Amino acid sequence: MSILLDVWREACRHLDIGESVARIAPLLATRLPIDWVLVRRIDLEQRRIETVAAGVCGTEPPPAQRRTRCSAADLERVVTWCRRGAVHVGKGGAGADPLLGLVVPEGVSARVIAGALVDSSGPVGVLVLVARGQQRFTPQHERVVRSLLEPFTVALDNDLRFHEVARLREAVEADNRALLSRLERQDISESVVGGNTGLKDVMDRVVQVAPTDAPVLILGETGSGKEVVARAIHTQSRRAAGPFLRINCGAIPSELVDSELFGHERGSFTGAVATRQGWFERADGGTLFLDELGELPAAAQVRLLRVLQDGTFERVGGQRSLTVDVRIVAATHRDVERLVAEGVFRQDLYYRISVFPIHLPPLRERIEDIPSLATHFAWRAGLRLHGKPMVPSAAAIELLVSYPWPGNVRELAAVIERAVILGDGQHLAVAQALGVSGPNPGATPIESATTATPRAATPPPPPLPSTFAPASHGAATLDGAMRRHIEEALRASLGRVEGPFGAAARLGINPHTLRGRMRKLDIDWAQFRRRRV
Question: In terms of residue numbers, what domain contains 321?
Fold first, then answer.
């Protein structure tokens, strides 16, 4: 009776089944000839039996915790046995009877005694006690095991409820973040502006991959909207009700990456005063977005590869494997293939995580999205800062489309917000926000202060004539507005493209970018050159 009371005490003291079994196993070793105590959960929906906790009574660690896949007939055999409340004694491993071949983990070849864990809703798991030596289980041992089934059932139920509450909490927090995003309290919007224009190919690929669980690697420059695409994948997947968690791999100190991703046990290192769940455990049943994947240290890459392969990992300082069901969406602005060639990034991890790559084009390659993006950001910023929405004018759009946007969508959002502030809520001061100089500031965008490189020895270009000012009326098409804008700059610079007085400097864009747009719009710069006489 004394040992049963101790087992009940430990089963009710801990919410996590692993902690309970780790403390109960040494107690049972005083009364039973056993080496390991295993608790296996029956998952009727997924038709599998998986080890969720293992306790060690001797010195040898238990085998790696694995899942046992069951056919419908096999699972029905296990459920029928569980409902009888029987205790089964035999030997696991090769030659085991069919029942023990299902309830005992693969790789355990020893004498075992198994008991069914059944609560008010039906079978929930199996208790497996393993004796690796020459010990034999007696009828008295069987009676002791029968008395242990109830406290182990309670411990397993506590663990199920604990993890269910944790998953629900993560889902609620994810919903809360989504609601805050809709209330304009975050910078990342869930809507994908440009999904029918410049990002149409990207969104088509999102629709293809979202219903699957395949890992996705999003490649694109900083600020191009990789997190927005990752959220779109999550919301269109079967995991939409689960958590969506983002972690910036480049913002975590290298010595803490393992602890952040996979969690740690209490006392595993200085400062680990309590057991902590990692990001993978928190994202169980949902999506984990690994931003800046290229910054992940080599040691963490090895552990990440294992999670992708079989869904198992160990906390830092832990002795037991944990299993999670997480979909990985990763993103990086770096050239991963070059990192692989240099030996910085593991080749096998690259192949595993880039099952479905999505290339996100920079904003300068989808200028047709700039008007809709500018309108979206102006509407939001106006409401947030001044309580009323704002809409950019046609002249403001002309200025925006002629800028190269090295910071992509993130920079555009910052410029629009700055324009709302500078305009005091009355208008969008886009020219001022872009840093325009000269007598006609609304006409000459130059590089912003964050991207320009001052040149003391080079005089500024002369101001453009008034004919270069954007027309106040709307252009028939965006290409037409761009053509007129570039031609006026070429006319003012006498056909010169490069140099301090060239059209590229007047438009505030890279000469190569300007030439690319001229080719697209079929503009011949030579016709604007002054002919010699």
Answer: 193-361
